Amino acid sequence: MSQSISTSKASAEEIGLDLRIETPENVILTYQLAGPAIRLGAYMIDFGIRAVVIVIISIFLLCTGMVMPGASGGLYALVWFFMEWGYFIVAEGFFRGKTIGKHALGLRVIDDRGHPLTFWGATLRNLLRAVDVLPLYGPGFISMVLTQRLQRMGDLVAGTVVISERRVVLPREPIILEKIEPLPRQELGSYVPERGTLSLIEDFLTRRHILSHERGHAMAAPLASVLAKRLRFQGDPDLPLKFPMAFLARLYVTFLKRDDEEDEDQIDWKPKRKRQRKSGRPRQRQTVSDW
After folding, report:
1. Distance between CA 185 and CA 194 in Å, rounded?
2. Does the structure show a pLDDT above 80 at 194?
3. For residue 51, is pLDDT > 60?
4. Quick one: three-class SS letters along the chain?
5. Tens digits of per-residue pLDDT, 140-151?
6. pLDDT (average), residues 109-127
7. How far apart are CA 58 and CA 250, in angstroms?
């Protein structure tokens, strides 16, 4: 029974779409391979775009051929060659492994070691497209089915894979301001952090729960050290050094409340315009004395 369970798990891993690549720095990168169906959809989008461009240029060359007989045939062959071969090479080589169809469906071509696609890799994999497409993309489909990384022949020769990009939205946890004690004003200098700095601290604190305690302090330490120097912080010197996350949280609460108080003061003391009395005289233009 246990042997059958282990066999099913192994087969599930073999047919899975997850690609794990270990870098020389012992960092494991995980990608999701793109299957034949979604790659066919991206190809059909690119095929439609190329067909529309070829039709438009053909109509233009047809009209031009009436004026210059014999010239339109050579230009049409040149355009067809570029759209058939150059489109994929230029798009994938200069736009980080993406064509318009791949971009629309969230696909990208990368090196099988996890590196970005090079122009030479894009050229090599697309020059061998002629082998993959004849007949009816049969060799390319068979190659994808038989290889573990779903690679067609062009991918095998160029050392590339097609992945599906997944946009990950990091969860946020609200900052409980009532439980954080602000820094005493007498321990701070005259420097006031910018709104952008406070927004950066807020983004970091709302994602603190996805980091370990040690990793969170390590990431917060450089910013906490810089802000402590600019603020001329005169409190506990160990706070920004040993507990940088706590220092940033207290700093955020301190200046967040300060900004709120300043906004309230501006609203309360905003000067009001005097209303002019209604009369038959024409309305005069307001000046500084009217405030």
Report:
1. 17
2. yes
3. yes
4. CHHHHHHHHHHHHHCCCEEEEECCCCCEEEEEECCHHHHHHHHHHHHHHHHHHHHHHHHHHHHHHCCCCCHHHHHHHHHHHHHHHHHHHHHHHHCCCCCHHHHHCCEEEEECCCCECCHHHHHHHHHCHHHHHCCCCHHHHHHHHHCCCCCCHHHHHHCEEEEECCCCCCCCCCCCHHHCCCCCHHHCCCCCCCHHHHHHHHHHHHCHHHCCHHHHHHHHHHHHHHHHHHHCCCCCCHHHHHCHHHHHHHHHHHHHHHHHHHHHHHHHCCCCCCCCCCCCCCCCCCCHHHC
5. 888 888 998 999
6. 92
7. 67
Domain boundaries along the sequence of the chain: 16-164, 177-268
Compare 102 and 4 and report the one with higher pLDDT.
Answer: 102
pTM score: 0.56
Per the DSSP assignment, residues forming a β-bridge with 162 are: 109
pLDDT at 287 over 90: no
Cα(194)–Cα(207) distance, integer angstroms: 21
Q: Tell me how far CA of residue 192 lies from CA of 195, 233, 260, 267, in angstroms.
A: 9, 12, 14, 21
